From TrEMBL:
The keyword ATP-binding does not apply. Its EC number is 6.3.5.4. Keywords: Ligase. GO terms for molecular function: asparagine synthase (glutamine-hydrolyzing) activity. It comes from the Bacteria. InterPro entries: Ntn_hydrolases_N, Rossmann-like_a/b/a_fold. This is Asparagine synthase (Glutamine-hydrolyzing). It comes from Flexivirga oryzae.
Length: 584
């Protein structure tokens, strides 16, 4: 069994007003936290566990993201002041996601803040005469009424992740981007430590120039500070950009790692070629270790993952990655996460500034957003399922409308501040205490550049392709996994656009076929872990009793699964998340 202890850790602070009867100890036990350190003061109780167990000195900021990093270097916790939203010479706005910190002053005023994207997940709850903030929504759930938020479950059943500040627990909310929470004498207030940054359009040439300089400087500074850092390298465009940003003189001997999905992995083939070309050390790890788990071990690992994710992302996929990660070195890590924000991830068809309209929203959710991660038809309680899909569609539509932007810009904003925050961010939050990972394309400077580009310059990866060309023309000529070389996307003519459109059309065709067949692409290792997990439930069917009481899942479907019927990974993921919500 892999060692997951390094990822575990968290903090809970309860502020008391008239009510003094909240019992953090019992809430922690119910959430599966058995050895916390609890310190009670006059008007607050602080509980820490795992990696944060020693971090609760009054007045000293607690960095609850494992790392506080500015544009060029790490920031010491003592330099952070949440009252003024500063971090040494920087502001909290300038810090790299995921970041969050918590601070208690000598008047028992509690403050917490998260980064400019809201990546590090921090949760809060208020009651009658008390309020609380924590890294664990499950702990907050057990401080009071722990019933599920059916609207949150509906959205997650369709999307696989959350929207807004919602969680799966009624009354528990997430701190959003640029927000700071203050607790004092049981009262809770939330403000924004920085306004939303206005963006004026910039030409693509300017964007490429600024982004290439920023990324090159970032990579040099980071490798100077962390010479043993490891680059996550695939056959895709985002990691290609980061490799291109590393000077050739710094590539020889650089360690790069790739996850292998099978013996014919194109990611591995392309990454291996790049490693050989530049003299890099290539680390490859597959998923064979998953088969060594027995059902009880698989269940324990998935439950750990679900609690780390606070039930709000796929714990089956996350558990598989934990197994793979256990075989990799755990030093400083460089990840390509973030490139999607600069290539119009949700664009479909011509990039035209239509106003947000419900037919466009229905097209987006039906053929893109719900296609991969929604729960299987028939698995949900009929009444709940009939209501959940249109409700989730309405929620997506409202998010798009609230941007006040034309359709392409609205989808970009939703991708950055909803999908990236609530899907990528929650996964980063689950591992940030155990692994120091930086995502250069989530640097606030890169995000500002991406937000300032016209949609037509982001579409079809035009901006990102030109970025590779500027950083390293040689790398721009090497084909990507399943796609042509970046050079082909940089400034294609009509004929080239038609050629480039073939992979896009093929992908769209797969999406259409996927929807017609009502099938979903499983995450890496998802099928293996789903088989083990369902086998454990068949041996221990009472584990599903609390889920039955919610009337979210169909009883006949649950009975069929327990009797031997197959369950797909997306449906199993939501079911596992809801099992994890039950008191331990």
């Amino acid at each position: 069994m892999i060692d997951v202890d390094r990822y575990a850790g968290g903090i809970l602070v309860v502020s008391y007003g008239d009510c003094k009867d909240r019992d953090p100890a019992s809430a922690l036990r119910a959430a599966g936290i058995t050895t916390p350190t609890i310190v009670r003061r006059e008007n607050t109780t602080v509980a820490t566990w795992g990696a944060l167990v020693a971090e609760q000195a009054s007045g000293s900021p607690v960095v609850i993201s494992g790392l506080a990093r500015g544009p060029r270097a790490a920031i010491p916790p003592a330099a952070i002041d949440l009252a003024t939203a500063t971090a040494g010479d920087e502001t909290i706005w300038d810090l790299m996601p995921p970041f969050a910190a918590l601070q208690i002053d000598d008047r028992s005023t509690v403050r917490a803040a998260t980064d400019m994207l809201g990546f590090r997940h921090v949760y809060h709850r208020r009651g009658d005469g008390w309020s609380a903030v924590s890294t664990s929504s499950l702990v907050l759930a057990h401080l009071d009424d722990a019933r599920i938020d059916r609207q949150g479950v509906a959205v997650q059943a369709m999307l696989g992740w959350q929207l807004g500040d919602r969680t799966l627990i009624h009354g528990v909310r997430k701190l959003r981007e640029r927000q700071r929470i203050t607790l004092h004498d049981g009262e809770l207030t939330i403000d924004e430590y920085a306004p939303a940054s206005p963006h004026s359009r910039i030409p693509i040439d300017t964007a490429v120039s600024e982004a290439s300089t920023m990324l090159s400087d970032y990579m040099v500074d980071y490798l100077d500070e962390n010479p043993d850092a490891i680059l996550q390298l695939t056959g895709g465009l985002d990691s290609r950009i980061l490799l291109a940003a590393i000077p050739r003189s710094r590539r020889k001997g650089l360690r790069v790692l790739t996850l292998s999905s099978g013996p014919d992995s194109e990611d591995v083939r392309i990454a291996a070629q790049l490693a050989e070309r530049y003299g890099m050390v290539h680390l490859v790890q597959g998923l064979s270790e998953l088969s060594d788990l027995d059902p009880s071990e698989a269940h324990a690992l998935v439950m750990f993952s679900a609690r780390q994710l606070n039930g709000m992302a796929d714990p089956v996929a996350h558990a598989a990655l934990l197994v793979v990660e256990s075989a990799f070195p755990q030093g400083a890590r460089i990840s390509g996460l973030g490139g999607e924000v600069a290539r119009g991830f949700y664009y479909v068809g011509p990039v035209i500034g239509y106003p947000v309209a419900r037919p466009l929203t229905r097209l987006l959710v039906d053929w893109r957003m719900f296609a991969n991660d929604s729960v299987a038809t028939g698995a949900l309680n009929a009444e709940f399922g009939e209501w959940a899909r249109p409700f989730a569609t309405d929620e997506v539509h409202q998010v798009l409308l609230n941007t006040g932007l034309p359709w392409p810009d609205a989808t970009d904003r939703m991708y950055l501040y909803e999908r990236m925050q609530r899907w990528s961010g929650v996964v980063d939050s689950a591992v940030c205490l155990g692994r120091a990972t930086v995502n250069p394309m989530l640097d606030p400077r890169f995000i500002d550049i991406a937000n300032s580009l016209a949609p037509v310059d982001k579409a079809h990866a035009r901006f990102l392709a030109q970025l590779v060309c500027r950083l390293d023309p040689e790398l721009a000529e090497i084909p990507l996994e399943g796609r042509r070389a970046p050079l082909a996307y940089a400034a294609p003519g009509l004929g080239q656009r038609l050629t480039n459109g073939v992979p896009v059309a093929q992908k769209a065709g797969r999406k259409i076929a996927q929807r017609l067949r009502n099938t979903r692409r499983p995450p890496a290792g998802g099928d293996t872990l789903t088989t083990l997990l369902t086998e454990h439930w068949r041996r221990n069917p009472s584990l599903l009793d609390p889920v039955r009481k919610t009337r979210v899942f169909d009883d006949q479907w649950l009975d069929g699964m327990l009797a031997g019927a197959a369950a797909d990974p997306s449906t199993t993921a939501l079911l596992a998340s809801m099992v994890a919500l039950s008191p331990s």
